[in-house]
Design brief:
Shape: elongated
Order of helices and strands: HHHHHHHHH
CATH class of the largest domain: Mainly Alpha
Largest sheet: none
Oligomer: single chain
C-alpha cells in the first residue's frame, strides 16, 4: 500500500517538477536575453518551449524572448516564426505585431511589415512603437510622407525619444532631396 501511495505521489509531483524546470528555463532565457547573451537565451527558451509544460502566458513570453534573441543574432526568419507562433496564442497583441513588423522589414518583406504595423496600431494605439514600426515600413517602401506622419505620431506619444527625432530629420532630408531633384 505504501508503495502504491508513493507511486501516486510521484505521478503527481513529476509533472509539477517538469513545469518548475520549464519555468526556470524561461526565467534563465529572460535573464540571458537581458544580459546580452542571446545564444544562451535561445537555448533556454527552446528548452522551455520544447518541454510542453508552459502555460499560455509563459509560452508567449518564451516565444517573444526567443524571437528577440534570434533577431539580435541576425536570424530574423526564425524571429518571424516565433512571433507568428506567439500571435496564434494571443492574436490581439500589438507589441508582438510590432516585433514581427521589425523582423519582416529585416528580411525585406516590407508589405507584410506594413500590414503588421497596421495591426500594431489597431491593438496598441497608445504605444509609440506601433507608429514607429509602421513608419519604418513606409520608409522602406519609400512612402516618405506616410513615414513622416507616423514618426511624428510616435514622437507625439514619446516626445523625448531621440530615435524618433532622428528619423524625422532623416525623412525631412530625403524629402528635401526629392524636391530638389524634381526642379
Amino acid at each position: 500500500m505504501k508503495r502504491l501511495a508513493f507511486a501516486g505521489l510521484l505521478a503527481v509531483l513529476l509533472p509539477v517538477a517538469a513545469h518548475a524546470d520549464a519555468i526556470d528555463d524561461n526565467t534563465l532565457c529572460y535573464d540571458a536575453l537581458n544580459s546580452g547573451h542571446d545564444k544562451n537565451a535561445v537555448d533556454y527558451c527552446t528548452k522551455a518551449i520544447s518541454s510542453g509544460q508552459l502555460v499560455k502566458d509563459d509560452l508567449v513570453a518564451a516565444l517573444i524572448n526567443r524571437g528577440v534573441a534570434f533577431r539580435n543574432l541576425g536570424n530574423s526568419k526564425l524571429a518571424v516564426a516565433d512571433y507568428t507562433a506567439a500571435l496564434k496564442e494571443t492574436p490581439r497583441d500589438g507589441m508582438i505585431y510590432a516585433n514581427r513588423s521589425n523582423a519582416l522589414r529585416d528580411i525585406g518583406d516590407f508589405e507584410r511589415a506594413l500590414e503588421d504595423g497596421n495591426k500594431a496600431i489597431e491593438f496598441a494605439p497608445r504605444r509609440s512603437q506601433s507608429y514607429f514600426v509602421r513608419g519604418a515600413a513606409y520608409d522602406a517602401l519609400n512612402r516618405l510622407e506616410s513615414a513622416r506622419k507616423d514618426y511624428m505620431q510616435a514622437l507625439t506619444l514619446e516626445p523625448s525619444n531621440r530615435d524618433y527625432q532622428d528619423r524625422i530629420l532623416a525623412i525631412d532630408n530625403k524629402l528635401a532631396r526629392q524636391r530638389n531633384n524634381q526642379r
